[in-house]
Amino acid sequence: MTMTDPYTCPSCSCGQNARTVAAGPPQLEEERPETARERVNRKWNEVLQETRVAQTGISILFGFLLSVAFTSLFGELAGLDRGIYVVTVVLAALATASLIAPVSLHRFLSGLRVKDELVDAAARLMVCGMVLLALTICGTLLLILRTAVPSLLAEVLVGGVMVWFGLCWYVLPWMIRRRAGRRR
């Protein structure tokens, strides 16, 4: 007599878990409105996930920018390129501060029952950080392209990239938000 796993599908030898087979397809929970507490917790978790993505990007970019000053070619940068570099490094520092600020806010405000305000402030800092990140990326791109192509072409390319950032990061969400507002 062979022992069979009590959780293996009894009707055949497919190897499926009997609990899954017996339960059938997953049932959707009845939709219920989320409570104010659930909503603020969901929003906070969303801000944290977004922050993680943006922090990774600015950390890598900021590290790259900081290392540039220690290369042998940095001494050869002309005055304008040095100015672009300085502005770009400062933008990266500001973006880093804005994108890490929600963590600091949470740590200092934890337990004070101000999560709604925390989420609002963190969301504003994220938007500010994303603007600064876009400017940092464009400054870095300008600095790199000015060494690779004629100056005017570099500026036109960076202008196009800035327009693209504006469209993807700000105009598109604004349009979707506006369209969703009309459906309500």
Automatic annotation (TrEMBL):
The organism's place on the tree of life at top rank: Bacteria
Organism: Streptomyces odorifer
Annotated protein name in UniProt: Integral membrane protein
Record flagged with keyword Iron: no
Sorted UniProt keywords: Membrane, Transmembrane, Transmembrane helix
Entry-linked Pfam families: DUF6328 (PF19853)
InterPro entries documented for this protein: DUF6328
Residue intervals passing through the bilayer: 58-78, 84-109, 121-144, 156-176
